[in-house]
Amino acid sequence: MELITKKILITGSTGFLGKHFIQYLNKHFPGKFQITESNTKHNSLLHYNSLKRYDGNLPDKNFDYIFHFAAVTKAGDWCLTHTGEQWLTNQQINTNIIRFWKEFCPTAKFIGIGTSCSYGDDWRKDEQNYLTYEPEPSLYTYAYTKRMMYIGLEAMNKQYGMDYCYFVPSTLYGTQFTESDNHFIYDIVRKVYSATYENNNNIEMWGSGLAKRELTWVDDFIELMLKVVFELPDKHNSIINIASGQEHSIYDYYKNICKIFNCDFTRIEGNKERYTGMKDNKLITTIPEIKTFKFKELENGLEELVKYYKTIKYD
Asked: What is the CATH number of domain 176-213+246-281+296-314?
């Protein structure tokens, strides 16, 4: 894609998606973007005044794009016990960045990230159903903070003509995760590693293993997100699902990772007392360029995860 140098603001730049996004831009579009990072090391989005350092009237801060990746959540059962914290924090973050967009750089295009857990658990997860059915109760608060962000973007567009894209990915995965990242796929890698190399314990699987999850390699998501932003303007100001279509049961993920580690998968033991979340999170996309995209094969992605985690442990 042909681009002149663009000025972009990235919130949550030190998070999983933010890190991969900046590396992707630097690798594939060197010199094409002037990047300004916003993260908890630089400023807190909880305090609106801290955003004034990014005043859009300043020559080097007249942003062309705002990529809003910042959010407060964790995998597992964290959502069950931190409902108030999630609501207060995420609503404040989202309101502040949208207000900043309106007051300081209204001509910028705003790119927001939704969540698959905003969809009703027993319904077809295509874009027209994003606001239609009630989310999974255990994820209700976080799901609604993401829905409210979308409504805020839509409101800015309707009243002020401001442009946005709102992307909903399935569960993103890739390298550069940390020991503290407890998303299910990394949790499985850690458990199987521990069972293989550190002790003789069996491998605890939360729930029966029948729940299904869809994984999308993070760089694939970034590539498609940028394709929509830069090449498909008719898809803007709407909800856009990006997903690989690679949905499998939790139990199958355990078995596949056991195979990569050469670990006996019969050591897997389901604990039905533990939290399991949504029954599935498979997304349906209506955009041909996404539907025909060649996503990274799951087997290759899981092998890269295991290889990366081994480097963490060996180092």
From this structure: 3.90.25.10
